[in-house]
Design goal:
This protein is mainly alpha-helical. The protein is about 55% helix and about 5% strand.
């Protein structure tokens, strides 16, 4: 009897594990459907979905980072008051007086930055796989909304330390809102609570950061996971007696259970060594049970991501500049790094174009992508133009981000980062 079996046989074990141990594949499937947590996953997935190259486990990384933000954020809330008179002092106290305060703030800061990268990379990986196509169009739209909410979460949290870096980054970011046609001034005043960044802005950003946007993100993640589960299910084709993937054109040639051959039902298998040539070579489309194959890999990926966050937080402290001073304008004024590309565009184009039309066009274009792309094929060879176009846009955006973040100095002039550093995280 294994250790786990002994635990299950104890009084405590029987009170926790109310279902019998699952042995056969059919039993495991039944146990999967009976579990609240396992119900989030489909019972089976294709073997290719177990590989790192398939998704790089970026969805798992995004969820782990969001969980890290929730836990660390709740801890920090105990010691923070959203008021210009006390916010900066609270952050200083957290870093110097609160037990593990500096470290928890580091975890929160770097988790936020890494989550922006992970969500964006996850969307890019989904695009390259062509996984936004039917029947997953709507889930891609949910993913775009998740990216927008993630950016807003990071942006609203940027102001809370109430230092010079935060104050002027938010001033630059919210200035773009005033260029929205017809309602720009009203949108900016709604965000700021007045004509400029002040106490009302801090309170509004705090409420958005700790309540409104997290609830929106949780709701979107719930829908996203539910749709992923429904769209990823392997279903039974009653006409062919095979397990198939719900996506068009994908057929997994695995006999259904129970196996029916020439009208006879096979009730048992005699143990023995298969004859040469009878052994089936497993393909990437063959289905495997989610537990333990996929869940174990997800658990390992989650631990790796958490370890990296903790390691980075040990190595680098979250920045804190001098207290916010509306009368002293830093040169250069810089938006957060994830808006650096837009700020770089602002140096070359009218704010209406760079600050409103470009970001709006990107979001709307991404949401419309699965409905405009009518190519039914998923292979890279059949999607060469789409992949090259997306890659060119991605490279351009990364280059603009790097230029705006690291290569711009006073008066938005060009500087080499190894000579004089002006980038801030």
């Amino acid at each position: 009897m294994t250790l786990m079996e002994r635990v299950r046989e104890t009084t405590v074990g029987r009170s926790i594990f109310r279902i019998p141990d699952r042995v056969t594949e059919r039993d495991k499937a039944a146990g999967h459907w009976a579990s609240f947590l396992l119900h989030i996953y489909p019972v089976k997935v294709r073997r290719i979905e177990l590989t790192f190259n398939y998704s790089a486990f970026l969805g798992v990384a995004s969820l782990v980072l969001f969980g890290s933000l929730l836990v660390s954020g709740i801890y920090l809330m105990f010691f923070y008051v959203p008021s210009p008179a006390s916010a900066y002092g609270n952050i200083q106290a957290i870093q110097t007086e609160v037990p593990f305060g500096q470290y928890i703030r580091n975890v929160h800061r770097w988790s936020a930055h890494l989550m922006v990268i992970a969500v964006a990379a996850h969307m890019a990986r989904v695009f390259y796989r062509g996984a936004y196509k039917s029947p997953k169009e709507f889930n891609w739209v949910i993913g775009v909304l998740l990216l927008v909410v993630t950016l807003l979460l990071s942006f609203t949290g940027y102001l809370l330390p109430w230092d010079q870096l935060a104050y002027w980054a938010v001033t630059v970011g919210t200035a773009m809102a005033s260029y929205v046609p017809l309602v720009g001034d009203q949108v900016k005043e709604l965000l700021l609570g007045g004509p400029s960044v002040g106490s009302a802005t801090l309170v509004r950003f705090y409420v958005l950061h700790v309540a409104v946007l997290p609830l929106a993100l949780v709701g979107l993640v719930t829908i996203h996971l539910w749709r992923w589960r429904k769209d990823s299910m392997l279903t039974l084709d009653p006409d062919k007696g095979t397990v198939k993937d719900v996506r068009p054109g994908v057929l997994v040639s695995t006999p259904a259970d129970p196996v029916v051959t020439n009208g006879k039902r096979i009730l048992g298998v005699v143990p023995g060594k298969p004859a040469a040539g009878d052994r089936k070579e497993l393909s990437d489309d063959d289905p495997v049970m989610v537990w333990p194959h996929l869940l174990v890999r997800h658990a390992v990926a989650a631990l790796v991501v958490l370890f990296l966050v903790l390691l980075i937080s040990l190595s680098f402290d979250a920045p804190l500049k001098e207290i916010a001073n509306p009368t002293v304008t830093p040169n250069p004024e810089k938006a957060p790094w994830y808006f650096a590309a837009l700020q770089e565009l602002l140096a070359h184009y009218h704010p209406l174009v760079a600050g409103v039309l470009v970001p709006t066009g990107i979001v709307v274009g991404l949401m419309a992508l699965p409905y405009m792309d009518r190519n039914p094929l998923f292979t890279p060879q059949a999607r060469r133009i789409a992949r090259l176009t997306f890659t060119a846009f991605l490279v351009l955006w990364i280059v603009l981000t790097l230029i705006g973040f690291a290569f711009r100095g006073p008066n938005w002039g060009w500087v080499w980062p190894w000579v004089e550093w002006h980038g801030e995280l």
